Amino acid sequence: MNSSRRLRLDLARYYRLPSVQVSLGVVLAFMITAFFIMFAIRPTFATIVKLQKNIEESRTTLKDLETKVAALSKAATLLEKIKPQLPNLETSIPPDGMRYDELAYSLEVLAQNTETTLESFTLGDSLVASRLVNAYTPNKKQEVVPTPITVRINGTYPQVSAYLTRLASAIRLTAIESVAILKDGAGSRNSESGTLTMTISGLVYYAADPGAIQKVFPKDGGK
User: Fold this and answer.
1) Strands 174-183 and 196-208
2) How far is 23 from 169, CA to CA, in rounded Å?
3) What 3-state DSSP class applies to 95?
């Protein structure tokens, strides 16, 4: 028992030594520092890593935006360049319907200018604008839609040939697929004058929503 008491006294004197007290202070300070590293500084490191990741994502987003801005700028420049031609484009491929009256008038004027006779012309079912109002409303779904056209004219060979040439180069876009020429029979009053009948078949185009056309003409898409 005396030994145990003596040991406690020795330890008490030991802990009162200045050098021991300093060492204990250092150990305590180290433990406190380790505590803050584990429970305070570590979350800060996690936050820094997260911020770095966000910065990288922001840089990627910025690059994407710069690419899109460059594309839009290029598109705007191109639009300004072609803007004077937009009226011709709308005439070639009308965005608001077949424009049947304009087409008929242009074919008649062309016949007068080439001194031919316009016997007839027919268009496909797509000219029924009253049933396709929604199809002609400008929207992102609009596409270039073809519709058949057949034109029949009378005249001499130079006249019908001139008509065909001018029709092929007209502002209203026309794709000529076939041409048939018949000479009047022997019993015809015009046989001596060399009158010919030319039948021109092809396609004209307009802008519309194919889905809306398909609902009205499910079999052939409105062609």
Assistant:
1) antiparallel
2) 102
3) coil
| Cβ(93)–Cβ(138) below 8 Å | no
- The DSSP 8-state label assigned to residue 130 in this structure reads G
Q: Which residues pair with 153 in a beta bridge?
A: 118, 198
Q: pLDDT value at position 99?
A: 78
Rounded to whole angstroms, what are the CA distances from 23 to 10, 14, 18, 93? 18, 12, 9, 93
Backbone angles phi, psi at 200, to 5 degrees: -110, 125
With CA atoms as reference, report the closest residue to 149 among 118, 169, 121: 121
Q: What is the pLDDT of residues 194-205, one digit of tens each?
A: 789 999 999 888
Answer whether residue 74 shows pLDDT above 80.
yes
- Stated pTM of the model: 0.54
Could you tell me if residue 148 is left (phi over 0), alpha (psi between -120 and 50 degrees) or otherwise beta? beta
